[in-house]
């Protein structure tokens, strides 16, 4: 329910702004004017307010990392001053940033849970309603039906107290979705009916359209096709009245599924044409590719006929069109795969392309698609669905063996009824968009694990570039701050500890450092023995890079000091920071890592080596960037190996 997320995220932003619900516009010059005010701010309260305003501005423009930096910079003041309202709004914003911008769901949920606790302290039902709405959507999207159900009931109680029909309707709606996800269809329908009644009272047509779509899906699963069609068409009518092309594509997806399954050719063609028009109007590649693939599959079926000898031919005069359709499906398939995790659909599309390319006399392409079909089929968890194709697979694979030996041979003996079965099973590609977590939760979980693993190795932006292009170019960054830490007398302490104790102590510290880096928007680069290297201001440039690095360093000093009181062999630490340009990127092609190079890195290391336990030693470059925010004590010029005498400062 992407629209619901957009509404909740928008409402969260409005609450973050502390204004009434009204149209929001982005002011391009606001950031510059706020930056100009920052050096003039002489009090902590004034600086916190500017950071808060800059966070709001960045969030409204979806500059997520920048928004996180500024909101986190303002948070300590509002927490210390016990401004619960501002603190809760900041945590709401951070929840949106983590979930919607950085795709760090666990961190997002933690931020929302903090906002929930603060809203309860204030006894603010309006704020709680928004928090619950975000938590409901997030858990529902993750397939966590029980959590979604709990928060939906909490939000329903708020709606009933306020007699707010819209909140009541949305809450019943999500309660129904949770029950449907758990397979409790009767409870789902009961809550859907309650939701429909409340939507009608509130006049929320968009919500009603979304609900009717869910009800139609429920009836479709129960095999009540006529009732499902009625609800789908009612939902479509509302979407058309509102001019919501995105919603129309989703509803037409379901109708196309239905018409394909019931062999309603006339309505199928109408739905496909309308769906393609709506998809093009959205300019969304996912919608366009989905309808292109489905329409292409149907067109392929219409351009074939039996040859009377148990094989098939392309209709006379249609070969060029047939070839163009195959090419179009092939091109759109890559786009579709970027937006769908429904591997079951992928297998069937590749099987269709194997058959079609064979008819075109392209046995190599037929074989390549057959290989892809088998590859995805092997990774598909639901073996029951795969059994539908066992006979077709047996015949195609048998013929493919000949293709591998002699590409001049063709894949034979595939029935037209078999191809129709393929088209029916392929359905509409966007079905996965609506049902992917319900039908493919296992696959979604595994893909999320894979993505999270990649994000543990690489920054988000670099990981996305690597997934999209297969490679990532090193970049020059002109303004960043490099942070080095090193434990004092670590070698001596390690001699008195066992291996297990030593590793556990390092793990405790570095895990805490990782959390601190995330909170202040720094990018961890690596650990080198007992040293820790991170950088602020990349891969997304940030004017506050030096301030954020100092804030992170202070948190590290505080954590290490607290830990030292808890264990008899507590460690102490030195920290050094230097600001300047560097190069960053991926090195190697196997076991690759994101690394940084340049004189800035070397100077930061020298700052750390010339620091003392429990202190943050910074360069003159860094001091010039943070002197309005932190008190810096000049240490004088200190001789540094290979660099001469450098000005150094301690951060107080």
Explain how this protein is built:
The protein is an alpha+beta fold and 652 residues long. The chain folds into four domains: 142 residues, Alpha Horseshoe (Serine Threonine Protein Phosphatase 5, Tetratricopeptide repeat), CATH 1.25.40; 43 residues, no CATH class; 133 residues, no CATH class; 182 residues, Alpha-Beta Plaits (2-Layer Sandwich), CATH 3.30.70.1230. Helices cover 68% and strands 11% of the residues. The strands form two sheets. Strands 3, 4, 5, 6, 7, 8, 9 and 10 form an eight-stranded mixed beta sheet that branches. The two termini are 49 Å apart.
Q: Spans with pLDDT under 50 lasting ≥5 residues?
A: 1-26, 380-440
Count of alpha/pi helices: 29
SS strand fraction: 5-15%
Number of domains: 4
Quote the average pLDDT.
77
CATH topology of the largest domain: Alpha-Beta Plaits
How far apart the termini lie comes to: 49 Å
Radius of gyration: 29 Å
* Helix and strand composition category: alpha+beta
**Which bin fits the share of residues in helices?**
55-70%
CATH class term of the largest domain: Alpha Beta
């Amino acid at each position: 329910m992407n629209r619901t997320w957009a509404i909740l995220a928008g409402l969260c932003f409005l609450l973050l702004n502390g204004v009434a619900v009204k149209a929001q516009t982005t002011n391009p010059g606001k950031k510059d004017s706020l930056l100009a005010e920052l050096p003039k701010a002489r009090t902590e309260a004034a600086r916190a307010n500017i950071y808060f305003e800059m966070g709001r501005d960045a969030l409204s423009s979806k500059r997520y990392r920048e928004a996180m930096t500024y909101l986190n910079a303002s948070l300590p003041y509002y927490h210390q001053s016990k401004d619960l309202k501002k603190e809760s709004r900041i945590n709401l914003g951070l929840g949106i940033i983590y979930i919607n911008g950085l795709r760090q769901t666990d961190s997002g949920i933690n931020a929302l849970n903090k906002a929930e606790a603060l809203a309860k302290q204030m006894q603010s039902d309006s704020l709680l309603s928004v928090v619950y709405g975000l938590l409901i959507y997030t858990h529902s999207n993750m397939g966590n039906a029980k959590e979604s159900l709990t928060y939906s009931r909490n939000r329903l109680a708020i709606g009933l107290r306020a007699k707010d029909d819209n909140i009541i309707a949305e809450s019943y709606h999500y309660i129904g979705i949770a029950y449907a996800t758990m397979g409790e269809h009767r409870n789902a329908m009961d809550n859907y009916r309650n939701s429909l009644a409340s939507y009608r009272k509130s006049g929320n047509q968009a919500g009603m359209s979304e609900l009717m779509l869910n009800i139609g899906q429920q009836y479709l699963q129960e095999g009540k096709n006529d009732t499902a069609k009625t609800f789908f068409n009612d939902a479509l009518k509302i979407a058309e009245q509102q001019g919501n092309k995105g919603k129309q594509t989703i509803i037409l997806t379901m109708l196309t599924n239905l018409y394909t399954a019931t062999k309603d050719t006339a309505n199928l063609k109408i739905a496909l044409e309308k769906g393609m028009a709506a998809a093009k109007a959205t300019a969304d590649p996912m919608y366009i590719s989905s309808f292109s693939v489905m329409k292409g599959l149907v067109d392929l079926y219409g351009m074939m006929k039996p040859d009377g000898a148990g094989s098939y031919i392309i209709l006379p005069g249609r070969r060029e069109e047939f070839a163009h359709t195959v090419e179009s499906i092939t091109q759109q398939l890559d786009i579709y795969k970027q937006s769908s995790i429904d591997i079951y659909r992928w297998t069937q599309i590749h099987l269709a392309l194997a058959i079609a390319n064979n008819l075109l006399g392209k046995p190599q392409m037929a074989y390549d698609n057959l290989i892809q079909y088998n590859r995805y089929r092997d990774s598909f968890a639901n073996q029951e669905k795969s059994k539908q194709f066992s006979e077709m697979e047996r015949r195609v694979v048998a013929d493919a063996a000949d293709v591998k030996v002699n590409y001049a041979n063709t894949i034979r003996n595939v029935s037209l009824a078999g191809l129709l079965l393929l088209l029916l099973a392929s359905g509409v590609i966007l079905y996965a968009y609506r049902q992917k977590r319900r039908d493919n939760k296992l696959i979604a979980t595994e893909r999320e694990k894979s993505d999270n693993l990649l994000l543990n190795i690489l920054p988000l932006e670099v990981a996305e570039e690597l997934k999209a292009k297969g490679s990532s170019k090193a970049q020059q960054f002109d303004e960043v701050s490099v942070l080095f830490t090193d434990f004092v007398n670590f070698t001596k302490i390690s001699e008195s500890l066992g291996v297990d104790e030593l590793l556990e102590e390092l793990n405790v510290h570095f895990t805490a450092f990782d959390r601190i880096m995330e909170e202040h928007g720094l990018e961890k680069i690596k650990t080198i023995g007992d040293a820790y290297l991170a950088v602020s201001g990349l891969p997304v440039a940030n004017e506050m890079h030096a301030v954020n690095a100092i804030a992170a360093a202070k948190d590290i000093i505080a954590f290490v000091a607290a830990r030292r009181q808890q264990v008899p062999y507590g460690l102490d630490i030195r920290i050094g920071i230097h600001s300047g340009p560097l190069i960053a990127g991926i090195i190697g092609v196997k076991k690759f890592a994101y690394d940084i190079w340049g004189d800035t890195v070397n100077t930061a290391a020298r700052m750390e080596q010339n620091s003392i336990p429990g202190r943050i030693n910074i360069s003159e470059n860094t001091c010039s960037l943070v002197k309005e925010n932190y008190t810096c004590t000049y240490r004088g010029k200190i001789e540094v190996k290979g660099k001469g005498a450098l000005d150094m400062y301690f951060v107080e």
